[in-house]
Specification:
CATH topology of the largest domain: Vitelline Membrane Outer Layer Protein I, subunit A
Distance between the termini: 13 Å
CATH class of the largest domain: Mainly Beta
CATH superfamily of the largest domain: Jacalin-like lectin domain
Helix content: 10-25%
Radius of gyration: 21 Å
Number of helices: 6
Order of helices and strands: HEEEEEEEEEEEEEHHHHH
């Protein structure tokens, strides 16, 4: 089941300007592979700002199932003078769904981050919104960010998946849990429990657990 979901992961093209022999690449695709897409989630992004509000680069962080934070690859030239480091944190109950990329003939000039629940951040200034030509939809989850840099952030791309595909395999739990609040329906199900397959029995019992326990199961399934 997870394999078919992983096949629905998409990636934007490289957005920005590549300075040949100068642009250094960074890759975080390993956090959004078939094996890792449910093991890690994007949790924090640092944006490095130089003089005149220039975006020098970024670095992403990802949390695993144990809530341990793992660093993505360095996405900026640490020899440059950094004036400010802006942090964009993504709460554990939220997801980065949009990353608007504004470019010029110099590279990436401006970035706007937006989560499903409406948290947003804009950094840099100027440029033309290029990413709208590829993805502009709050119904996505951004899984990982990669790109390249030289004396500023040159290029970006990200891997993403439709939220309905990502959460699709947990919807049955929510639907059944709501139905089980009806006493007549619940008693009818429980009276036939011994006739069900083991997998169905597990689903039924999970939906009857207290809220805290049920939420932990859903979190595990989502990862």
């Amino acid at each position: 089941m997870k394999e078919s979901i992983a096949e629905k992961i998409k990636a934007t093209p490289l957005i920005g300007i590549i300075n040949f022999n100068q642009t250094k690449r960074f890759y975080d695709d390993n956090f959004s592979t078939k094996e890792n897409m449910f093991q890690f989630s994007l949790s924090k992004i640092l944006i490095f700002i130089g003089e005149k509000n220039k975006i020098l680069g970024i670095r992403s962080f990802y949390k695993n199932l144990k809530k341990e934070e793992k660093e993505g690859q360095i996405g900026y030239n640490d020899a440059l003078k950094v004036i400010n480091i802006i942090k964009f944190e993504i709460p554990s109950n939220d997801h980065l769904c949009c990353l608007y990329i504004f470019t010029s003939d110099k590279g990436i000039e401006q970035l706007k981050f937006l989560t499903k629940k409406g948290k947003e951040l804009t950094v840099g200034e100027g440029g033309q919104n290029i990413i709208k030509n590829y993805i502009n939809d709050k119904e996505n989850i951004i899984l990982s960010i990669s790109g390249g840099y030289s004396d500023q952030l040159d290029i970006l791309r990200f891997r993403y998946i439709k939220m309905s595909d990502y959460f699709g395999h947990t919807l049955g739990y929510f639907e059944l849990r709501i139905k089980m609040k009806n006493e007549k329906f619940k008693n009818n199900i429980n009276s036939k429990i011994d006739t069900y397959k083991d997998s169905d029995k597990i689903l039924i019992r999970a939906c009857l657990l207290p809220v805290a326990c049920f939420n932990e199961i859903i979190k595990f399934c989502m990862k």
